[in-house]
Design a protein that fits this description.
elongated, about 450 residues, mainly alpha, single chain, two-stranded antiparallel sheet, binds arginine, 4 strands
Length: about 450
């Protein structure tokens, strides 16, 4: 047992209590941030004269060595320490003696851990944004390449109206753009420095909180010391944003699973992103898409867990808050893995464009356009809707698509139909004439692609 306290205790901590309380197994994940925070704190202690410049330099130099040695593997983080803060401080004292004992002046583990978690999360937000940018770039490429890859658009998972693959992918592009901006918002809101809040009530030392905040790249210090040590809102916001990312990935995965099924065959996943069956030799399963869909539950779980953990905690710091770490670390790692794998999966999958087009032509996806044709030729829309309904019923009986019926057959239902109906309800017209901004027509899509070109260039 290696702990920073013990002076007022007369007995050793029970081993089970020690194990239950310790966090070294998981908080060593932010050793780098812990050391960087300590370097800033020690620098400030020197600059303000709370310790001497020589002492400050000695501490900072040794902390830098400790960081380097942990990074290159020459110094192992021992599991006998209670937490990462104890490990770093004990190692420092071990190496530079009494000077090392001055590092924790005007600081508590409460503001220290609040700082470490914020620094770690801030770095990871940047990493996730990087992965999202890669995904957005893949989606953008797919959009540019598939302006005339026709496919059915669905509502209720029933064929509705024809769209293009570019348009379908464009919907996800918008979702992930929102996800990206949510992360930016969170970053901007959380970028204030809790260091200097002490245990809960600040300190009597003349700490320069502006200095530590700016040394660590924050916009400024937090404004209430009790809130500083007990605020985990930014983690809840992050877990919520990660949950939304997962929800989007999961919806897309679900579609890919459907499209990759034997019945649809719209896409074929690359062998490198598929798995086989131990018994059925013919199988090629979309396990990656299924796992991405499945892991969503785990990330939602982290959000609900932390919300629940936080809901009954009185001000200020309470040990319950230690629970934020494993949940957040797991959610971050899970989401990073999901985005990267999903990106690889969709950038290597093959599109069966013919199957998609044939499917778009079947299922009366041009029925609305047939009704619009009648409207353009003087029929009121509600009447046109009824006429086309009867026409669809007739076509089903004949086992034909609307455009496979002869002009005589069409005219037997409504004399308004003329030869130009075939052009009016062709797939090319149905999609190509839909050119209000946001619609699937190529003209409209090109404008969106141009906007996205710009968006990505400035990301
Ligand atoms: N491991 C603790 C946590 O994650 C560090 C803070 C400890 N503070 C305390 N008062 N026990 O919250």
């Amino acid at each position: 047992m290696a702990q920073l306290w013990g002076g007022r205790f007369t007995k050793e901590t029970d081993q089970l209590v020690y194990n239950f309380n310790a966090s070294i197994t998981f908080d060593q994940k932010f050793y780098k941030q812990d050391i960087e925070g300590s370097i800033a704190h020690a620098t400030m202690l020197g600059k303000t004269g709370i310790i001497t410049i020589e002492e400050s330099d000695k501490i900072v130099n040794e902390l830098k060595s400790i960081l380097k040695e942990v990074e290159d593997g020459t110094l192992e983080i021992g599991s006998e320490y209670e937490d990462i803060h104890s490990f770093v401080e004990a190692t420092l004292i071990d190496r530079i003696g009494d000077t090392g004992k001055k590092l924790h002046t005007g600081r508590s583990r409460n503001d220290q851990v609040a700082l470490d978690m914020r620094l770690y999360t801030r770095d990871e937000i940047e990493n996730i944004k990087g992965l999202l940018k890669e995904l957005l770039t893949t989606l953008h490429t797919l959009m540019k390449e598939n302006l005339d890859t026709y496919m059915p658009g669905f509502t209720h998972l029933q064929k509705a109206q024809p769209v293009t693959f570019a348009h379908h992918v464009g919907a996800y592009m918008e979702m992930f753009k929102r996800d990206y901006s949510r992360l930016t918002d969170i970053y901007n809101r959380m970028n204030v420095c809790p260091l200097g809040a002490g245990a809960l009530a600040g300190t009597t030392y003349p700490l320069d909180r502006e200095l530590t905040a700016s040394l660590l790249g924050f916009d400024g210090p937090t404004l209430n010391s009790m809130d500083s040590v007990s605020d985990r809102d930014y983690l809840i916001e992050l877990l919520s944003a990660l949950s939304t990312i997962c929800m989007h990935l999961s919806r897309f995965s679900e579609e890919i699973i459907i499209w990759n099924s034997n019945e649809y065959q719209f896409v074929e996943l690359d062998d490198a992103y598929s798995t086989g069956s131990s018994i059925m030799p013919q199988k090629k399963n979309p396990d990656i898409a299924e796992l991405v869909r499945g892991k969503t539950g785990r990330v939602y779980g982290a959000l609900i867990s932390l919300l629940t953990t936080m809901k009954g905690i009185p001000l200020a710091y309470n040990k319950d808050m230690q629970e934020d770490k494993e949940l957040t670390f797991d959610a971050i790692d899970t989401v990073k893995g999901c985005i990267a794998l999903f990106n690889g999966m969709i950038s290597t999958m093959k599109l069966n464009k013919d199957n998609m087009k044939v499917s778009a032509m079947k299922g009366f996806t041009n029925a609305t356009d047939a009704a619009d044709y009648l409207v353009k030729n003087g029929v009121a829309f509600r009447d046109a809707h009824g006429i086309i309904g009867r026409l669809v019923l007739y076509a089903i009986e004949q086992n034909k698509a609307i455009d496979e019926l002869s002009l005589e057959e069409l005219q037997s239902i409504s004399p308004v139909f003329k030869e130009d109906i075939y052009d009016a309800i062709s797939l090319e017209t149905c999609v190509g004439k839909r050119n209000t901004i946001g619609a699937p027509g190529a003209e409209a899509m090109k404008k969106v692609i141009e906007i996205n070109d710009n968006y990505l260039a400035n990301l």
